[in-house]
Amino acid sequence: MYKNLAATLVAACFFSPLSFAQSTPVTPPAHSPVKAGFVYVSPITEAGWTKQHDEGRKAVEAALGDKVKTTFVADVPEGADAERVIRDLASQGHQIIFTPSFGYMEPTLKVAKEFPNVKFESVTGYKTAPNVATSNARYYEGRYLAGVAAGRMTKTNVAGYVAGFPIPEVLQGINAFTLGMRSVNPQATVKVVWLNAWFDPPREREAAMTLFNQDVDVVAFHTGSTAVMAAAQERGKMAVAYHSDMRKVGPDAQIIAVTHQWGDYYTRRVKAVLDGSWKSGSVWGGVKEGMIRVGDFGPKVPKKVQDEVLELQKAVGSGKLVPFAGPITDNEGREVLAKGLRLTDEQILNMNYLVQGVVGKVGR
Asked: Are the C-beta atoms of 152 and 188 separated by less than 8 Å?
């Protein structure tokens, strides 16, 4: 997850998906397991950003058995604390360390210089080094599909969106969700509330309640807790789960979940350390790569809608459906993309506007 707004906007300019650089492989001794460390920015809750990364860690253990030994440190603030924890893991002999939060990028790079034989995976970062790789997911693909479900389910034609920071990743999600909604419900609008925080359950709940008081009957969110889902359950409204399936929290409220799948990627990267083939590089994967999926429908969603969304998910995975295809107009009436064109990765990564149908301004 991103933390520093200014740095993130720079990230959008320099992130280069699927570019790879060579590094000198270091193979651990055959008789000992690979030690893999994970650093988490928040506590491991029942669902959310950190929960999904810990599920990825568990998937590594399940896949590799006694060939790997994993360690995690949770609730580590970005900055000096992160640097200390990452250094400690490297000093303790971990051969690969995963740091899934944008604010961990610089501490990871600093420690990586001190430990050139350790491999580092900066998740959501954009700067690589010979022993630092980056990865991220195309969250916006799942957001578009969730928007289709929301567009089918809304009765008021008004959705809400509780947003963290006004950075490209979040703007991509809001815009894709809105485009997905309006693809099946052209009258739909999306009201945005900005928190300028990733993990603040009381404020997340308050923002959801405010939206529900403004004719919103379905809400999406880009925050780290289950507070918005819980609020929807309490108010008898609908919500789109993010990061994880949240039906335990909102058994009646959840209509669909956009989930992040890290297990396969993490397992492949640890395997690469095992066999000496690990390379630095940047990966930006989506539905096609298995890093994003939608599903986990709630009981209110008719089978017809479920089938429609799942078919569209196949189309996204095959490349037949592209969320950011023209014509696209921003919510101030300016043409962003002409009919017949598609946004490039660079344009998506530099996104700094809200599309037609979004009620609100960037950051306000």
From this structure: no
Angle at 232 between CA 226 and CA 234, to 5 degrees: 100
Listing from the earlier edge strand, what are the strands of the sheet with 96-99?
Answer: 20-21, 280-285, 132-137, 119-123, 96-99, 34-39, 68-73
Kindly report whether the global pTM for this prediction surpasses the value 0.85: no
Q: 71 pairs with which residues across the strands? A: 37
Cite the DSSP H helix spans in the chain. 5-14, 49-64, 80-91, 105-114, 139-153, 168-184, 201-212, 227-235, 263-275, 303-318, 345-349
Give the model confidence (pLDDT) of 153-169 as tens digits: 999 999 999 999 898 88
Query: From residue 45, how far is each of 1, 38, 207, 270 by CA, in Å?
Result: 16, 16, 20, 25
CA-to-CA separations, 90 to 84, 108, 119, 123, 130, in angstroms, rounded = 10, 10, 9, 17, 16
The DSSP letter of residue 115 is -
Question: Angle formed by the axes of helices 303-318 and 139-153, to 10°?
Answer: 150
Percent of the chain surpassing pLDDT 90: 81
The C-alpha atoms of residue 212 and residue 68 are separated, in whole angstroms, by: 47
DSSP codes of every residue in 255-307: EEEEEE--HHHHHHHHHHHHHT---EEEEEE-TTTTSEEEE---TTS-HHHHH
- Among 107, 204, 95, CA closest to 160: 204
- Give residue-wise pLDDT tens across range 65-94: 999 999 999 999 888 999 999 999 999 999
Cα angle for residues 216, 246, 153 (degrees, 5° grid): 35
Q: How many angstroms separate the CA atoms of 18 and 138, rounded?
A: 13
